[in-house]
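Fig. S4 source data, part A: sequence.
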Amino acid sequence: MTTSCRNSQDSIKNELIVCQECDALITVHLAQLREGNSVSCPRCDGHLIKHYRNRLMPSMLIALSGLVLFYPANFLPVMSLSVLGNSGQNTMVKGVYQLAMEGYWWMASLVLFCSVLVPLLKFCLIFFITLNAYLSTWSRALMHALKFYQKIEVWGMLDVYLIAILLSYIKMSDMGDLIVDVGLFCFIVFLLLDVLVSTRFEPRAIWRQMDEEGRGWRQ
């Protein structure tokens, strides 16, 4: 009984972390995981954990900013092209629609999922998770949201879409008068927010906070 209690207390004080660079299994003391501390791999000096001070509120605000910018980034005109008096405007969603109308359903579905739906789900999940963690509201919904976020995080491809837009701009610039609209600037800021929130948000820290503060929430 005494040995099992001691082992249980040691497991609470320590955490096993696998290094993503060299696959080393490292025992990290939870006392090292305070706000502002960083933990590196003793074998390869790779990044294991970095804590930012007051990490919840910045992640929440970035996610909220991303949700606000979602509509202008995807539905406002990105570029306007005028050729011989005929002009037209393109948006992100309109580009997906045109791909579908030309018969490229698989490509339209992939672009819609990776460049529109996944970023929206990502910002929604981060806002929901950080808000509940900030309010110390622990529930199964929060647990499922964390699991779902870790599954869809790798599917975001906003940077690929931005490169495609820049290539289109270069190719069409000789065809007529090409004007960059406000939608492109909103999309660039939206992309930067997506990158920023990915570097600030740490699901592992939320799991630890759930274990420390939310004991008994499963009952």
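Fig. S4 source data, part B ends here. Helices lie at 2-13, 56-75, 92-101, 105-134, 140-152, 158-172, 182-200, 203-213.
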